């Protein structure tokens, strides 16, 4: 993941209701819940600012109704934001004409949704090739491309099947392959695995991570499942009532939640798989350092077996091999069982 912002949004609002812009002006961009209720407006996205970095998986996570879908729809301009700035590779997205935007969406953005949206009277191959057909790519070329992506998502041999002949997981694989044929620069996935049973869901998450290792797309992934967010994300943006309350690495979301809403999500997280030695080490170094060391980046699940066997503390070394803290057995257990 690089440091270049692929998408930037600043002060983004989406208010639904009779007069969204007038409403924001009237309330000086700081409306309270009572203001919304009194005027029949809804603040689906409220003053949201963040960057999506090139090559990262940014997961947007939050309870039902927190504004995830509205935010993603603003970013893709399937709906118009009420206010704010939106840039794609430093180009002002909100200044593009409708035509330019449709073109951008077709060529640079890929989208996968929870409901597969496959065309029922077309075969798997034709469904996957469809975005290229719209672009006027000749049949042989688009079919070759569709075959390539069908292989990539493990659907070899299903080219001539119709959607009704596929399982839910297979349909979603078709949706994934279809969204990739145009080689999008940004890949939006809105609850793509939510309709699948837990085993298939986990399998597709693994495949998705494998795909990303080779494709290195910039990804915005929506889910309301915190464990899915932890497994997939480079960074997680947690939404509540249309606002991003914390945007951080999975580890920091669990180790240093911004408030009790975020902490509740982290409470049941498998701490040993998420937290690393560096996040929980005591930074105050004693005069005499423990003889054994661990690396700051090592996950607790790797360290626990040895530390619980010998009961010895460890000095925690940073990337430059310098002591960054000390980890005692008590601190380790407290992090795993009490979450701090
Ligand atoms: N077209 C609309 N008109 C009025 N209110 C809307 C509209 N679309 C969404 N909302 C409201 O905006 C808020 C955010 O909805 P949104 O669908 O973005 O949430 P979400 O986090 O994606 O929820 P879910 O996980 O259930 O899909 C909700 O209160 C919803 O009722």
TrEMBL record:
Alphabetical keyword list: ATP-binding, Nucleotide-binding
Short name of one Pfam family: ABC_tran
Coiled-coil regions, chain positions: none
Origin: domain of life: Bacteria
Domain ABC transporter: 24-266
GO molecular function, one term: ATP binding
SUPFAM superfamilies the record matches: P-loop containing nucleoside triphosphate hydrolases
Keyword Transmembrane part of the UniProt annotation: no
Protein name: ATP-binding cassette domain-containing protein
Lineage of producing organism: Bacteria, Pseudomonadati, Pseudomonadota, Alphaproteobacteria, Rhodobacterales
């Amino acid at each position: 993941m690089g440091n270049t912002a692929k998408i930037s949004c600043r002060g983004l609002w989406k208010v639904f209701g009779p007069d969204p812009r007038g409403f924001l002006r009237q309330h000086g961009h700081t409306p309270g819940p009572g203001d919304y209720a009194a005027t029949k407006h809804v603040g689906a996205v409220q003053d949201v600012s963040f960057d999506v970095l090139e090559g990262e998986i940014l997961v947007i996570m939050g309870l039902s109704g927190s504004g995830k879908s509205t935010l993603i729809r603003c970013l893709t301009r399937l709906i118009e934001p009420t206010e704010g700035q939106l840039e794609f590779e430093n180009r002002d997205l909100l200044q593009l004409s409708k035509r330019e935007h449709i073109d951008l969406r077709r060529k640079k953005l890929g989208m996968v949704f929870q409901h597969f949206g496959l065309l029922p009277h077309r075969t798997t191959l034709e469904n996957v090739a469809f975005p290229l057909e719209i672009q006027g790519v000749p049949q042989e070329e688009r079919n070759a491309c569709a075959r390539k992506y069908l292989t990539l998502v493990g659907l070899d041999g299903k080219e001539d099947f119709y959607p009704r002949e596929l399982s839910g997981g297979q349909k979603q694989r078709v949706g994934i392959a279809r969204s990739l044929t145009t080689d999008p620069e940004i890949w939006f996935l809105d609850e793509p695995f939510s309709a699948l049973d837990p085993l298939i869901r986990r399998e597709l998450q693994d495949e998705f991570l494998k795909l990303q290792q080779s494709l290195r797309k910039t990804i915005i992934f929506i889910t309301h499942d915190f464990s899915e967010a932890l497994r997939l994300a480079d960074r997680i943006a947690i939404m509540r009532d249309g606002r991003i309350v914390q945007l951080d690495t999975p580890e920091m979301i669990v180790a240093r939640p911004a408030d009790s809403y975020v902490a509740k999500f982290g409470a049941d997280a498998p701490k040993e798989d998420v937290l690393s030695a560096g996040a929980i080490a005591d930074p105050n170094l004693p005069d005499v350092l423990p003889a054994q060391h661990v690396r700051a980046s090592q996950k607790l699940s790797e360290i626990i077996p040895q530390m619980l066997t010998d009961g010895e503390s460890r000095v925690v070394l940073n990337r430059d091999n310098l002591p960054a803290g000390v980890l005692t057995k008590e601190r380790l257990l407290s992090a795993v069982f009490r979450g701090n």
